[in-house]
Amino acid sequence: MGGHKEQDVARQGFDVADAVPLLLDPHGMVSSWTAGAERLLGYRAAEAVGRKFAELLAPEDAERVPDLVERCRSGGDWAGLMTARHRDGRPVAVMVRITPTVEPRGRSSLLVLLSELADSPGWDMSRSVLEQMVAGTSIGIAIVDTELRFVWSNAALEQFGGGPAGRRLGLRFADIQPGMDAEAVEERMRHVLDTGEQVVDYELVGRARSAPLRETAHVLSFTRLDDARGRPKGVYYTVVDVTERHRARRRLALLDRAGKHIGRSLDVLRTAQELADVAVPELADYVVVELLEPVLRGAEVQPGAPTGSDRVPLCRAGDRSLYEDLPRAAVETGTVLWYLADSPPVHCLTTGRSWLQERLDPLALAWATPPGGRESTFLELGLRSAMIVPVRARGVTLGITGFFRRRHDPFDEDDLHLAEDLVSRAAVCVDNARRYTRERDAALVLQRSLLPRLLPEQDAVEVSACYRPADELTGLGGDWYDLIPLSGARVALVVGEAPGHGIGAAAAMGRLRTAVRTLAAIDLPPEEVLAHLDDLASRLAREEGDGDFPGRSVGSGCLYVVYDPVTGQCTMAAAGHPAPAVVAPDGTVTFVDLPQGPALGVGGPPFEAVELALAEGSTLALHTDGLLTGGKPSSDGRPPPDGTDRERLRQALRDAATALEPSCHAVVDMLVPARPYDDVALLMARTKRLDPGRIAVWDLPADPAVVAEARRTSARQLTRWGLDDLVFTTELVVSELVTNAIRHAGGPVRLRLIRERALVCEVFDGGATAPHLRHPRAMDEGGRGLLLVSQLAQRWGTRFVPDGKIIWAEQSLTAPPE
Predict the structure, then answer these.
(1) Are strands 557-563 and 589-591 parallel, antiparallel or unpaired?
(2) Residues paired with residue 109 on neighbouring β-strands, in sequence order
(3) Are 771 and 754 in contact (CB under 8 A)?
């Protein structure tokens, strides 16, 4: 540790009062040993005297001793750190000073002073060294007394304002920094004085005197100072400016908050409002988000901005203000505001570049006037600083975002960069919402075009339906419902659900609904309808392959119900779909014990149907699984409902109004939110029974002679019903159908007339073959029966029953047959 500077520092820091002396002869041998040296190194005088001083030191320091002895013999001295070796072998850190001495007899020797440093990281600092350290640091340092008044501070503290150290003496923190939270600072000082606990890294945000127009951040640490008796005499504290770190952390926090809160939905207006909500008050006092009108509709936006006019329309999509008087006139979301063509917002819209104005012209008029409001100056609005950032995504400008401040610091370039990052993230979300809006609207149009606008009029059931589409996060599903009039005054009630969401699900739903209507037209029983649908879904899956086809029908669910108002019998079958609920006339709610067949196209056991008798006034509630789950997603697509789900539906059906139309919507409102995760469809049908006086039945023997009697009997019945205009055509239809049954089927024949919205003529026989319509030639003697029936009836057909078949024909009661 050579060098004069080191020697001087060591010499200044050496405490002679604590030093242990010993003497060396000119050759570096120990010539005198003291009791203090024995306590320090453990050697007795007899062991130490006569030994080389180097032998008492660690090897690396022992090598230095000859040079040091020679230097000190020449009149110099030396001070520095060394490591001595204790008698027990452990190292001892010591401060060493070597000084030449001259005895009275002229003999020379070397005085060695040793000071132990066992509990010190280095030698004791002198006042001058400490002053150099305090004066040279960039950290502000101050000491206050027990009354929290300044008694000392370094020069670095002046950079934060408040004047030189001499001017601070006797003042308190609030006197020096009125723009800071002095009460909080002094509270921590008192805590340190009272407890002795050190407070480290306390962050203080405010306006320092050195920058009164800008918010700054500082980190303070407090330590108590005690006197020799351990009594507190003051607080020593340090100050470090961390404004840049503080602003960077706030920027990151704001961007992190934006990532969590912007884009949580796929709604354009909600996303724009989320942008405004995030930016206030962290970045601005007042924020407006204005978008081009096509963006709100989900339409494509042409690059550039509208031109050719002195004003440009923009729609208010979101705004947030820190003050109640901003804006003065409330502007509702979706309101069109007209901006001056030469205004900064329109310039940003046209160029796609941001704009910053640290100081707005207070007398300038605001760029847009709200509908019905008067023009205001920026002075009247109290707006002092502004930034305009274009909302751009995928190379297209969708609108602008305006940031304004009233009392905070003026915006700077850092604020503009932060605003651009914030808006760029939001712009992607806005564009995603715009694209989704377009696709969702298209899917909704497709789906609603496939759903029945008006359920057909009939006399079998009083019916009402409610469909609620899924929210924007999942997109529209493939839920659907239908009511199909069947022969014999019967109706088919259908509810189904295609898997997936969006246009693909709507397309799959349309295909299934079309297939169901086709199968219903041929009067197949419910289990056979589902079997044919299952075959169709499997065949389509094979044709489409394993690719991600957007309109797949595999996995679809369907519930098919047939109700006969003549008998009150109801037959139903289900494919991967919840069973319906039945509300009895007395309000009791039960669920049909219906075997759950597999979803369409996935394979499994055959479908089973159940038949039950319904009292007149019973209500069937057919629904998709979204109603049971409250519109929430299910784990595997279509699980069987649990008891809790069914109990909620049971209670909702009990509490619903008695009128069917409000009852249907009330049930959905009670169980499903306005924007559910999954689509929900509910079809409610209250059963009716046809008056027995509107039904006439005759059993006929299989004798051709009975045909004439059947015609006369039918004519008399029509006269009683007041349908004399249909007597002639009905006699022809009855004659042909009964003759055909007797001639080709054999066995007993049953004739039934039903007067509903149409006049239905049914002939039952025990045959298993369906009749075919033929077109006979002019010279053929037969084959004209069904051709004649098809010409006279509005529609006709055949349906099979367990013990035979029924041929039926309908004639309209509202218009004469053509």
Answers:
(1) unpaired
(2) 101
(3) no
Output Rg (C-alpha) for the chain, integer angstroms.
49
**7 pLDDT higher than 70:** no
How does pLDDT run across 692-712, given as a tens digit for each residue?
A: 999 999 999 888 889 999 999
Tokens at residue 109, please? 């020797």
Closest residue by Cα to residue 262 from 451, 401, 123: 401
18-51 pLDDT, tens per residue? Answer: 688 999 988 899 999 998 899 999 999 999 999 9
Most confidently predicted of 156-170, 440-454, 599-613, 764-778: 599-613
List the one residue out of 148, 208, 197 whose CA is nearest residue 173. 148
Q: What tokens were used for 644?
A: 């809790």
The DSSP line for 439-450 is HHHHHHHHHHHH
- Taking only the tens place, the pLDDT of each residue in 504-539 is 777 788 888 889 999 998 889 999 999 999 999 888
CA-to-CA distance for 362 and 365, rounded, in angstroms? 8
Residue type, 504: G
What integer best gives the mean pLDDT of the chain? 84
Please state the separation of Cα 437 from the chain's center in Å: 17
Nearest-angstrom CA–CA distance, 71 and 62: 15
**Contact, 139 vs 159, CB < 8 A?**
no
**pLDDT for res 553:** 77
* Cα–Cα distance for residue pair 753/391, rounded to 1 Å: 70
Q: How confident is the model at residue 5 (pLDDT cuts 50, 70, 90)?
A: very low
Q: Quick one: residue 143, left, alpha or beta (phi over 0 = left, psi -120 to 50 = alpha)?
A: beta
E-assigned strands of 478-608? Answer: 478-485, 491-498, 557-563, 569-575, 581-583, 589-591, 596-597
Q: Mapped to the 3 state alphabet, what secondary structure does 748-804 carry? A: CEEEEEEECCEEEEEEEECCCCCCCCCCCCCCCCCCCHHHHHHHHCCEEEEEEECCE
Beta bridge partners of 562: 492, 571
β pairing state of 569-575 and 596-597? parallel
Residue 779's contacts (CB-CB under 8 Å, 6 or more residues apart) are: none
Q: Which stretches of 103-135 are assigned E, i.e. beta strand?
A: 108-116
357-361, 469-473, 763-767: lowest mean pLDDT where? Answer: 469-473
Within 8 A by CB and 6+ apart from 420, the residues are 354, 389
CA distances from 701 to 181, 601, 741, 748, 769 (A): 108, 46, 11, 5, 20
**What are the strands, taking DSSP E only, across 469-605?**
478-485, 491-498, 557-563, 569-575, 581-583, 589-591, 596-597
Q: Is the pLDDT of residue 616 over 60?
A: yes
Strand partners, 291: 315, 399
Alpha carbon 658 to chain centroid, angstroms: 39
At what angle are helices 413-450 and 268-279 packed, to 10 degrees? 160
